[in-house]
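Title: Comparing notes on inverse folding

I've been comparing how different people in this forum approach sequence design from structure. To keep things fair, I'm posting one structure and asking everyone to reply with a full sequence. Here's the target:
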């Protein structure tokens, strides 16, 4: 599929999404649109796989008679095979295309007013979505499909006042989606996955404050992903403790040849469902991902596991319990202090460091306050620098990059085993951005500059930057020795290290005075010329 065809697919899907736009908010209609796209994907994926299994017998899946004795035997055998391969099962009558055709939406124009004639299918649709989940009961994939369509409320009056209105809207969406070719045979390109990501981003644009709950801007995700995959072509595991829609985990996968397993945790149930759908839509088999729905700090789900790569965009300065009992929790006990209850930023950092493998890299987004705030946070920061020496780099980003907040942020990079244990890299990329409507954006060149600078710092050639401190790139990157950081009382505020001060241009007052005098003389000569012209014309001079 060409780039033009991909753009066309994105536009088609967004046009379908707009069927519900105006009826309900962006963070609500995404549940319906993304859910129906997912249902269509599951149908086409299963039909394709079933036909592969049936090919030796010369049978076609959607032509099997579900009510005959032979048909039932065939479907039972297919269910076992597809449950193992895909993790779920659908009957031919439950396929997306079958249900869309049953609705048979006809859009007619009567008196310049669009009207829809359709067959009632809401009960059938509800039954099919429920059956997809039920088909996994007792199977290894059960947790990955449990309550996956919970947020699709077909009885909501928000999508239609009457049952007929709701049915017409849903049938129109299904009919429109049925006309789109998802091109699942194109194994070389993740076309549908990319289109799904496009829609998530579009929904985030319209969701305002809520967007921060499920989406990290792609350019920030790219930086995090490239950092944790530095000099690596394969990863055993990648983990995101606040995974949202799972986009950050999937972005990491784009930077390497293979990721062995994806792990994540998400507190919001709706977003958790979105993350599981996103994984499956990107052709990540249910065996390869483990995403849990729980509060990461209060009830961690991956207890003693260690991960090779950790990425995260935790909620900024969120509240948490800071229960004194956590002082004995392995995640926090070694630090001697808990993050304050009003600011959980360091609690998330401590949690992630606990899960970081010896050969791993961790990169997370945080507000600038974590770099300089005192009290408990200052104590934790000092421990990370002086006692364990895990802080590898601090990268300052521009303000107004994230949906729902305009504050400037930074990326913190941590390693258990560092290439340069005697110093810390500071990058100030806060002035590198372009304006895009109401948001600031990082270009590919801005991202490359950050990654190239970090790569040079950790490069093994000639021992990397080992032993070198001071300015790496004028007004942009600085390597600070641990002694220098200690002298600053472990304050990591970037302006303490990267000097972006621009000296004022020197002005020679005498030269300026001479120019003014010269201009006065020229103006006087012009005035005399104008006065002589006026005298010749016998008119009054204008001055």
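Reply #1:
Here's my take.
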């Amino acid at each position: 599929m060409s780039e033009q065809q991909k753009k066309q697919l994105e536009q088609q899907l967004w046009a379908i999404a707009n069927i519900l736009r105006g009826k309900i908010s962006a963070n609500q209609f995404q549940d319906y649109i993304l859910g129906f796209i997912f249902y269509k994907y599951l149908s086409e994926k299963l039909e394709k796989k079933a036909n592969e299994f049936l090919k030796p017998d010369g049978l076609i899946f959607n032509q099997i008679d579900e009510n005959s004795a032979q048909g039932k035997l065939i479907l039972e055998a297919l269910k076992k095979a597809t449950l193992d391969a895909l993790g779920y099962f659908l009957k031919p009558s439950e396929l997306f295309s079958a249900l869309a055709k049953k609705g048979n939406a006809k859009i007619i124009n009567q008196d310049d007013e669009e009207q829809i004639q359709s067959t009632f299918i809401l009960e059938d649709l509800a039954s099919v979505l429920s059956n997809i989940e039920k088909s996994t009961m007792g199977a290894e994939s059960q947790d990955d499909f449990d309550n996956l369509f919970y947020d699709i409320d077909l009885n909501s009056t928000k999508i239609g006042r009457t049952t007929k209105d709701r049915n017409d809207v849903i049938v129109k969406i299904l009919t429109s989606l049925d006309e789109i070719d998802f091109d699942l045979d194109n194994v070389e390109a993740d076309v549908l996955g990319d289109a799904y990501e496009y829609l998530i981003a579009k929904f985030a644009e319209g969701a305002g404050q809520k967007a921060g709950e499920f989406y990290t801007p792609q350019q920030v995700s790219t930086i995090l992903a490239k950092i944790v995959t530095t000099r690596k072509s394969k990863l055993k595991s990648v983990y995101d403790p606040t995974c949202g829609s799972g986009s950050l985990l999937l972005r990491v996968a784009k930077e390497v040849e293979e990721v062995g397993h994806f792990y994540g945790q998400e507190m919001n149930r709706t977003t958790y469902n979105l993350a599981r759908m996103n994984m499956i839509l990107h052709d990540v088999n249910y065996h390869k991902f483990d995403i849990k729905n729980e509060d990461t700090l209060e009830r961690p789900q991956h207890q003693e596991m260690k991960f090779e790569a950790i990425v995260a965009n935790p909620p900024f300065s969120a509240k948490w319990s800071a229960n004194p009992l956590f002082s004995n929790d392995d995640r926090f006990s070694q630090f001697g202090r808990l993050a304050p209850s009003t600011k959980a930023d360091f609690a998330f950092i401590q949690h992630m460091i606990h899960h970081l493998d010896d050969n791993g890299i961790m990169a997370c987004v945080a507000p600038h306050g974590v770099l300089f705030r005192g009290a408990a946070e200052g104590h934790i920061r000092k421990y990370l620098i002086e006692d364990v020496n895990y802080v590898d780099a601090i990268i300052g980003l521009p303000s107004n990059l994230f949906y729902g907040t305009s504050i400037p942020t930074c990326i913190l990079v941590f390693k258990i085993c560092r290439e340069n244990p005697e110093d810390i890299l500071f990058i100030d990329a806060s002035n590198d951005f372009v304006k895009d409507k109401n948001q600031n954006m990082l270009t590919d060149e801005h991202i490359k500059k950050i990654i190239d600078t970090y790569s040079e710092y950790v490069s093994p050639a000639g021992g990397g930057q080992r032993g070198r401190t001071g300015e790496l790139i004028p007004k942009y990157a600085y390597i600070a020795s641990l002694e220098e950081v200690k002298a600053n009382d472990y304050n990591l505020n970037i302006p303490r290290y990267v000097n972006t001060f621009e000296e004022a241009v020197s002005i020679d007052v005498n030269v300026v005075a001479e120019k003014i005098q010269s201009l006065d003389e020229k103006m006087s000569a012009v005035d005399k010329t104008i006065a002589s012209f006026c005298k010749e014309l016998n008119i009054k001079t204008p001055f």
